[in-house]
């Protein structure tokens, strides 16, 4: 329903309560505590290597909560990097990790990310030099390019024997993520990691992905071959069975001029006076049809016409054979090797002590708000209630009502009036008609409703009119038909009332006949 004076959501900045490691609502209207990177990205063109994308603390363009500010990525086609220290490092021990924050793609999103990185605690961590290669423990959040909608959850796992670090990616969510990137609403992204190695990814407090760090995170090796069948490299196309072949039954027509070309130089053409052979080359007369060929069946080399090949087998593809490199469907396996180790507690990741955004986006004005990191689920839920839930209520209150949405949709697509009539108006009218009217009115109304539906289907196919004009014409026509039906009902009612009078008079005559008073009445 539209937001009004009688229904107004008042904003109040959320207050962090309970055990937490980081809380940021940006309502101080400042970036105090945040560090913007001044580094350059390696292996990148000098023109775009700098992390010089702009950040600002401001309200959303269409904010429904005056006073509610957030962090906004302001530049497009720029590298952005900004980070902040936690109140204290987070160590993965016996308590869960909950990370949550809000994102609003105010201008939609073409290609870019809105994910956070939890930066690994290291002695040499310098937030002013935060780049893409800065070690992180977890990367989490939305990312989109083209029609590829992602919700990352990646953690970096360190081999205790070799020190090598490998990225582990969560399986792709089964849920359709498109709406979160296109509806221009504020969405709450939450990651929950538990000491038993289970994890949950939530959007707007609804689980969209879940699993176990031991079984749902390991990617297959890049060179693993799961193809059971491959194309036969030794197979050859049957060159004797093309789609068309020369017609062997064809005979060269009599009078065919083999030695005459189909086109000759124009004998009437003259070389232009300003033709310069040094500059323009040797002059040649333009080609015109050979007049000798006009009276002959044809000129030049005769070739048999092509006909469909009866042996043609369709477009050729090499047959499939067993893949000699087939290794089966890949599954994680343990093999003896010098670096082998078994980690049954992947939850015990490297500690982190900072949170950062390191992003590239082709769309500006991405809005971030209400970052929160804790080890208590109830504390996180309370923060979400005071922040995101309030914002959601304000956005919902400002949405148009169902009737307004239906009218707006019909204004864009006039054929929706047919759907509205069939699913809403028509059933109501029919219930009234069959419960409150007689047979005469019902029979005629069937015909009028049929005409009305025919009109709708006919009108919805008229593409040449503008949408607005179509909407107005449709609306007027509906009103005219409703008025017509009402007039018809009124006329039938009058006739029925008259019929009742005549029926009563006839019954009186019959009674008088029975009593012998028919002559007096006559």
TrEMBL record:
<feature type="transmembrane region" description="Helical">
    <location>
        <begin position="415"/>
        <end position="438"/>
    </location>
</feature>
<feature type="disulfide bond">
    <location>
        <begin position="111"/>
        <end position="145"/>
    </location>
</feature>
<dbReference type="GO" id="GO:0031966">
    <property type="term" value="C:mitochondrial membrane"/>
</dbReference>
<keyword id="KW-0812">Transmembrane</keyword>
<feature type="compositionally biased region" description="Basic and acidic residues">
    <location>
        <begin position="226"/>
        <end position="240"/>
    </location>
</feature>
<keyword id="KW-0143">Chaperone</keyword>
<keyword id="KW-0007">Acetylation</keyword>
<dbReference type="GO" id="GO:0005789">
    <property type="term" value="C:endoplasmic reticulum membrane"/>
</dbReference>
<keyword id="KW-0564">Palmitate</keyword>
<keyword id="KW-0597">Phosphoprotein</keyword>
<keyword id="KW-0677">Repeat</keyword>
<keyword id="KW-0106">Calcium</keyword>
<dbReference type="InterPro" id="IPR009033">
    <property type="entry name" value="Calreticulin/calnexin_P_dom_sf"/>
</dbReference>
<dbReference type="GO" id="GO:0033162">
    <property type="term" value="C:melanosome membrane"/>
</dbReference>
<keyword id="KW-0479">Metal-binding</keyword>
<keyword id="KW-0449">Lipoprotein</keyword>
<dbReference type="InterPro" id="IPR013320">
    <property type="entry name" value="ConA-like_dom_sf"/>
</dbReference>
<dbReference type="GO" id="GO:0030246">
    <property type="term" value="F:carbohydrate binding"/>
</dbReference>
<dbReference type="InterPro" id="IPR018124">
    <property type="entry name" value="Calret/calnex_CS"/>
</dbReference>
<dbReference type="GO" id="GO:0051082">
    <property type="term" value="F:unfolded protein binding"/>
</dbReference>
<keyword id="KW-0472">Membrane</keyword>
<keyword id="KW-1015">Disulfide bond</keyword>
<protein>
    <recommendedName>
        <fullName>Calnexin</fullName>
    </recommendedName>
</protein>
<keyword id="KW-0832">Ubl conjugation</keyword>
<feature type="region of interest" description="Disordered">
    <location>
        <begin position="282"/>
        <end position="301"/>
    </location>
</feature>
<comment type="similarity">
    <text>Belongs to the calreticulin family.</text>
</comment>
<comment type="function">
    <text>Calcium-binding protein that interacts with newly synthesized monoglucosylated glycoproteins in the endoplasmic reticulum. It may act in assisting protein assembly and/or in the retention within the ER of unassembled protein subunits. It seems to play a major role in the quality control apparatus of the ER by the retention of incorrectly folded proteins. Associated with partial T-cell antigen receptor complexes that escape the ER of immature thymocytes, it may function as a signaling complex regulating thymocyte maturation.</text>
</comment>
<dbReference type="GO" id="GO:0005509">
    <property type="term" value="F:calcium ion binding"/>
</dbReference>
<keyword id="KW-0496">Mitochondrion</keyword>
<feature type="compositionally biased region" description="Acidic residues">
    <location>
        <begin position="256"/>
        <end position="265"/>
    </location>
</feature>
<keyword id="KW-0430">Lectin</keyword>
<dbReference type="Pfam" id="PF00262">
    <property type="entry name" value="Calreticulin"/>
</dbReference>
<keyword id="KW-0732">Signal</keyword>
<dbReference type="GO" id="GO:0036503">
    <property type="term" value="P:ERAD pathway"/>
</dbReference>
<keyword id="KW-0256">Endoplasmic reticulum</keyword>
<dbReference type="GO" id="GO:0006457">
    <property type="term" value="P:protein folding"/>
</dbReference>
<feature type="region of interest" description="Disordered">
    <location>
        <begin position="225"/>
        <end position="272"/>
    </location>
</feature>
<keyword id="KW-1133">Transmembrane helix</keyword>
<dbReference type="InterPro" id="IPR001580">
    <property type="entry name" value="Calret/calnex"/>
</dbReference>
């Amino acid at each position: 329903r539209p937001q009004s004076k009688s229904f107004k959501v008042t904003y109040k900045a959320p207050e962090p309560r309970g055990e937490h490691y980081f809380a940021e609502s940006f309502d101080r209207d400042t970036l105090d505590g945040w560090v913007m990177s001044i580094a350059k990205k390696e292996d990148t063109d000098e023109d775009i290597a700098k992390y010089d994308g702009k950040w600002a603390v401001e309200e959303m363009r269409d904010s429904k909560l005056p006073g509610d500010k957030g962090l906004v990525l302001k530049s497009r086609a720029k590298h952005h990097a900004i980070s902040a220290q936690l109140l204290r490092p987070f160590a993965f021990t016996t308590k869960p990790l909950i990370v949550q924050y809000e994102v609003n793609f105010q201008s939609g999103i073409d290609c870019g990310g809105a994910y956070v990185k939890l930066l690994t605690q290291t002695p040499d961590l310098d937030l002013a030099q935060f780049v893409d290669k800065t070690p992180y423990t977890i990367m989490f959040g939305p990312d989109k390019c083209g029609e590829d909608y992602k919700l990352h959850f990646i953690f970096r796992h360190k081999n205790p024997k070799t020190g090598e670090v490998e990225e582990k990616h969560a399986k792709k969510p089964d849920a359709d993520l498109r709406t979160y990137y296109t509806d221009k609403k504020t969405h709450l992204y939450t990651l929950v990691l538990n000491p038993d190695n289970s994890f949950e990814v939530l959007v707007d407090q609804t689980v969209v992905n879940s699993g176990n760090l031991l079984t749902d995170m390991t990617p297959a090796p890049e060179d693993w071959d799961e193809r059971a069948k491959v194309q036969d490299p030794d197979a050859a196309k049957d060159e004797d069975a093309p789609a068309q072949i020369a017609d062997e039954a064809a005979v060269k027509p009599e009078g065919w001029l083999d030695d005459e070309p189909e086109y000759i130089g124009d004998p009437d053409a003259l070389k232009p006076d300003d033709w310069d052979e040094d500059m323009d080359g040797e002059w040649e007369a333009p080609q015109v049809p050979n007049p000798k060929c006009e009276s002959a069946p044809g000129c030049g080399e005769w070739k048999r016409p092509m006909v469909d090949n009866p042996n043609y087998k369709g477009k050729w593809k090499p047959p499939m054979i067993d893949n000699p490199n087939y290794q089966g469907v890949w599954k994680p396996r343990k093999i003896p090797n010098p670096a082998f180790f078994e980690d049954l507690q992947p939850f015990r990741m490297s500690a982190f002590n900072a949170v950062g955004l390191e992003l590239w986006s082709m769309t500006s004005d991405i809005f971030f708000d209400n970052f929160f990191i804790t080890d208590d689920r109830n504390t996180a839920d309370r923060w979400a209630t005071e922040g995101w839930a309030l914002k959601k209520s304000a956005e919902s209150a400002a949405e148009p009502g169902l009737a307004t949405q239906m009218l707006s949709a019909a204004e864009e697509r006039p054929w929706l009036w047919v759907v509205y009539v069939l699913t809403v108006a028509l059933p109501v009218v029919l219930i009234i008609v069959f419960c409150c009217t007689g047979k005469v009115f019902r029979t005629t109304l069937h015909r009028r409703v049929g005409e009305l539906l025919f009109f709708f289907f006919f009108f919805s196919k008229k593409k040449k009119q503008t949408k607005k004009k179509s909407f107005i014409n449709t609306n007027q026509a509906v009103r005219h038909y409703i008025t017509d039906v009402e007039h018809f009902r009124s006329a039938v009612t009058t006739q029925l009332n008259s019929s009742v009078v005549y029926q009563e008079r006839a019954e009186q005559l019959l009674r008088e006949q029975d009593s012998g008073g028919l002559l007096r009445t006559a």
